[in-house]
Amino acid sequence: MMINSKKQTTTCAHRSRHGWTLVETLLIVTMTSTIGIVGAKLISRLISMGNQLQTQTQTEYTAQRFEDRLRTDVESSETAEPIDHGIQLFSPNGEAIQYVIRKDNSVRRVAPRPGGTAYETFQFPETTIAFEVQPDRVLFSCVPEKETDSFRHKVFDRPWTISTSLGRRNRPFSQTSESSEVSNENVSETVE
């Protein structure tokens, strides 16, 4: 008699797996969702910061433009007189430029130009603004109405004044030693 020497394989209670369990699937779905949500929030935050930075840059640019425009107009004018809600500047050739404070806290510049009239509007959000005409100079003041944490309005977070001498550009150099002053350089703009 011969004994069969074939090895018999025993089957074990553990069989090799060829799929994923429900726990593994739920774990992967949860981790993927969490990573997706965090990524979406991060991208949203970066876009928001980019928009805020762009708005701040535009506000600072507008503030500088307003200051430059006002200084140029005042220094090129011989006289200034107050009008309802603003000032009117008169150049040596008789042209009049108006700066009018509007109800929406903006200043509109109205100036003659060949073929019509030029309009420019500068926005001053959440502020109280005013012009003051003195015998030899014009003052513009901007005071915030309330404290703000808004990044957009950081340019307007403290009071500031622009003070410029009348007719400075029309005088000889020796008479223009008096300089214009600004206590803070803040303004915003919307061109219409």
Tell me the domain tally: 1
Oligomer: single chain
Biggest sheet, open or closed, and with what strands and sense? 5 strands, antiparallel
Content-based structural category: alpha+beta
Q: Kindly state the mean pLDDT as a whole number?
A: 78
Q: How does the overall form come out from the CA principal axes? A: rod-shaped
Counted beta strands: 9
DSSP summary: helix tally? 1
DSSP helix fraction: 25-40%
Q: Alpha-carbon distance between the termini?
A: 111 Å
Brief sketch in words of this structure:
This protein has 192 residues and is of the alpha+beta class. It has one domain. It has 1 helix and 9 strands.
How is this structure best described in words?
Residues 176-192 have a biased composition (Low complexity). This protein is an alpha+beta fold and 192 residues long. The chain has one domain. The protein has one helix and nine strands. The chain has one helix at 22-76; strands at 79-83, 86-90, 96-101, 106-113, 116-123, 127-133, 137-144, 160-165, 181-182. The chain has a five-stranded antiparallel beta sheet, covered by helices on one side. The protein starts with 21 loop residues before the first helix and ends in a 10-residue tail after the last strand.
Throw out a few tags for this protein.
192 residues; alpha+beta; 5-stranded antiparallel beta sheet; 4-stranded antiparallel beta sheet; 9 strands; 29% helix; rod-shaped; disordered C terminus; transmembrane
Topology readout:
Elements: H1 22-76, E1 79-83, E2 86-90, E3 96-101, E4 106-113, E5 116-123, E6 127-133, E7 137-144, E8 160-165, E9 181-182
Antiparallel strand pairs: 1-2, 2-3, 3-4, 4-5, 6-7, 7-8, 8-9
Region (Disordered): 167-192
Keywords: Membrane, Transmembrane, Transmembrane helix
Transmembrane segments: 21-43
